[in-house]
Specification:
This protein has 12 helices and 14 strands. With 378 residues, it is α+β, with helices and mostly antiparallel strands. Helix 11 (294-309) links the parallel strand 12 (279-287) and strand 13 (314-316). The chain is globular and about 60 Å long.
Length: 378
């Protein structure tokens, strides 16, 4: 019977041991990404993210790892459970701390259990061990966020609830170039996109795409100022520290794409994405001054250009944003799974999840009507 250990730092497991179990080039599961979060101070107990990574061993041999955090808030998850926490509070119960298996600040579907074995029996074992793990760290719930479909179907527990979400993604249908992609649009929607791209040109703004190895320290410094400004405009500090981005550049440059927008020689905006062999993941954006259509060009159209040129199959543009629909990003389902210790709340949460799921199904079908493609016309 495999043994489950809790590790308070990813360094306790180590780069070689972690990455040996990672059979994908999905960048968010790599040791380097999670290590950068912890080492930079972006993820630590002071920010409400206490690492408690699961290490599975069989006779002392590592057979699986899973990112896990003990949290005292719900920030940076993108599967919103504030209403659940509020309901607990109204009944005089403690919702926090909670256990979260997720990639911090990254609402990106991908593997959460890393193993070279069949993951199903290991996930079943983990899910049935939830009460003991929660009791050990005095947590009141466990939340598995943005797992793969295989993982979601494998986790089993009498009180485990599956929750549906919606995101918007672009799919490369072997387009030769951006115009080939636009040729699939209706005439009116095609004109709208061209107008947006032309507005950026008329502002005198040009864009540069930089793979990780080509990003200079000065450019990364400038990007971080843009990124931080997006939070300061809302009266908050940025989730991620500057050191985090410099560690990404040092440890996994092959997974980075930086798009910088220039007005003459002056940088005015930037978007940093991660990538693997099949997918571009739009992650971080910022600017000082607002220009009409600059966000769409920097974050979406430049990414589509890059995907087509580099034959990537998909562009995962991140959470939220129905405005992406008319620009060719299709609504897709996302999933999470939730276990709560307080059995009395199961029925109420399950009813919430069921009603929400039905609403999301309706939302997705409704949004599909607004896709810009010619074959989508009634």
């Amino acid at each position: 019977m495999p043994e489950i250990k809790l590790c308070h730092e990813i360094k306790e497991i180590g780069k070689e041991a972690w990455n040996q179990l990672c059979k994908t080039d999905y960048p968010f599961a790599r040791y380097e990404f999670l290590y950068a979060l912890e080492t930079s101070g972006s993820v630590q107990p002071k920010t409400g993210w206490q690492p408690l990574h699961l290490l599975l061993q069989d006779n002392g041999i590592n057979i699986g790892v899973m990112p896990l955090y003990l949290k005292n808030h719900s920030y940076g998850e993108y599967v919103f459970d504030w209403a659940w926490a509020d309901a607990y509070n109204r009944y005089g119960l403690e919702y926090y701390p909670k256990l979260v298996t997720a990639i911090p600040f990254s609402p990106v579907t991908g593997p959460r259990l890393l193993t070279q074995q069949d993951p199903k029996p290991l996930l079943e074992m983990i899910s049935h061990s939830l009460p003991q793990i929660a009791e050990q760290v005095q947590a009141n719930s466990w939340h598995l966020l943005f797992p793969t479909d295989e993982e979601r179907n494998a986790v089993q527990h009498p009180h485990l609830m599956h929750r549906k979400g919606c995101q918007y993604q672009w799919f490369n249908k072997n387009y030769a170039d951006f115009d080939d992609f636009l040729a699939t649009f209706t005439s009116r929607k095609r004109k709208n996109v061209r107008k947006e791209r032309q507005k950026v040109i008329d502002h005198g703004i040009t864009h540069v795409q930089l793979d990780g190895e080509d990003i200079s320290p000065e450019q990364l410094d400038q990007f971080y100022d843009f990124y931080r400004m997006t939070y300061l405009k809302r009266g908050r500090e940025a989730y991620l520290t500057k050191e985090f981005f410099f560690l990404l550049k040092e440890l996994m440059p092959e997974n980075l794409l930086l798009v910088l927008a220039y007005n003459g020689d002056q940088p005015v905006a930037g978007a940093l994405s991660l990538k693997d062999s099949t997918t571009l993941y739009g992650r971080y954006w910022g600017c000082f001054d607002e220009y009409d259509s600059l966000h769409f060009e920097t974050c979406y159209y430049q990414g589509i250009d890059y995907c087509i040129a580099n034959k990537l199959r998909r562009f995962d543009s991140g959470a939220q944003g129905e405005h992406k629909i008319q620009r060719g990003f299709e609504p897709v389902e996302t999933w999470s799974a939730h276990w709560v210790k307080e059995v009395g709340f199961n029925q109420a949460i399950q009813q919430f999840v069921d009603e929400e799921s039905e609403a999301i199904d309706q939302q997705i079908e409704h949004l599909k009507q607004y896709l810009p493609f010619r074959n989508n016309e009634n």
